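I'll show a record.
***
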Amino acid sequence: MRLKEKYKYIIDYFERTMPDVESELHYRNPFELLVSVILSAQCTDKRVNMVTPALFSAYPTPEMMSESDETSIYALIKSVSYPNSKAKHLLEMSKILVAEYGGVVPDTTEELVRLPGVGRKTANVVQAVIWGKATFAVDTHIFRVSHRLGLVSDKATTPYSVEKVLSSNIPDSLIPRAHHWLLLHGRYVCQSRKAKCSICGLREVCKSYNSSNKSKKTD
């Protein structure tokens, strides 16, 4: 199967099986999503969703968070990974939002990555989820699934290189959903320690699955 055909097969599969897909993070506005994505770095969405209700109750706006302090923010997010650095990032990020953007979350990569705690992946998530932009955020799940399925070659060794390949092969209008398709597939089916190949609807076109089966037959 040619690469173009593989992409079409996989896109068609997800459009059938996951037509309506969205972030598993709980948020009500761009500021809350930005905070949640910052907290989700090397942490599960489930854990983030456990701490954000109290956090957003205490700091519903960038202005209120910017007037707080690291110790107070830390007390509300201490159960997430790296709470010390994240508390610092949230405080500094909110101060910059207020001072330079009037408390409004910017909508470009260049502006977003200037905020403490915001890298390219976070910036891409915010743009895709809030504004439906064709910005492909590549996390560990998407990186793994893309290689296993054979959507990218072994030469794509960085998240950015995977992002470029996926973005060039998936229509812009589908990229916001495609991010969630691959992420959720990696989170619940094509898991890191042991992929659940027996329930995967993409086995037929999966590079990893077919390579493994071929090697077993030749043993």
Observations:
- The first helix runs from residue 3 to 17.
- The chain has a mean pLDDT of 95.
